Amino acid sequence: MNVTDWPNLFVVKHFFEPRVCDAIVGEMKTTKASAATVYGKGNSGSVDANVRNTLRVVPSNETVDLVTQRLLSCKQTVEEHFSLTLDECEDPQFLRYREGDFFVAHQDGNTGLLRLDTERRRISTVIFLNREYSGGELVFTNLTSKHQMPAEPGTLVAFRSETTHEVTPVTHGERFSIASWFR
Questions:
Q1: Quick one: CA dihedral 143, 50, 107, 70, positive or negative?
Q2: Could you tell me where the beta strands, DSSP code E, fall in the chain?
């Protein structure tokens, strides 16, 4: 575990071993997927390909449980790093970004701007599963700088949910990742 030079990022390298990443990617390539939603002023998500263009994959219950349990196993360390007390972990979203797919700059919650269930999100997490693609960078932005997070397979990055971040368009190949949130 380590902290990057960019403020408020918590990184765990080797969160998943390469064989686990490969198995999850293999399952994601053959499993049903649908357009990922975004949240606006309503409580239900909607598809808006101008904001988020990617697929949300629904893997087996075993895979969801594996990821959820692994996230919960690091909850205390995340709490200590961010000096927070966290409750639950949302069900992970398994995301498949194809060529041209992206997610514009946004925050995941805890901004106080909307009265949605997503506002309860305090810490966001992303787990990188592969690196056989170009583009698709996870970029963090604050008032003075940008930071591009290296996409090393098996790496988890955690950050405060009010942090502005984006996924740039994938220019070649496919990007597989998992997103989740602690409340």
A1: negative
A2: 2-3, 9-12, 33-35, 52-53, 55-57, 93-97, 102-106, 123-128, 133-135, 138-141, 146-149, 156-160, 164-167, 170-173, 175-182
Rounded distance, CA 98 to CA 29, Å? 11
- C-alpha to C-alpha distance for 47 and 58, rounded to whole angstroms: 16
| Tokens (6 digits) for 70 | 């692994």
- pLDDT, one tens digit per residue, over 103-120 is 999 999 866 555 555 568
Per DSSP, the three-state class of 67 is helix
pTM across the whole model: 0.90
Alpha carbon 11 to its chain centroid, in Å, reads 13
DSSP state of 92: P
CA distance 89 to 161: 13
Whether residue 103 contacts residue 55, with contact meaning beta carbons closer than 8 Å, is answered with no
Contact call for residues 138 and 167 (beta carbons, < 8 A): yes
What is residue 1's predicted lDDT score, i.e. its pLDDT?
44
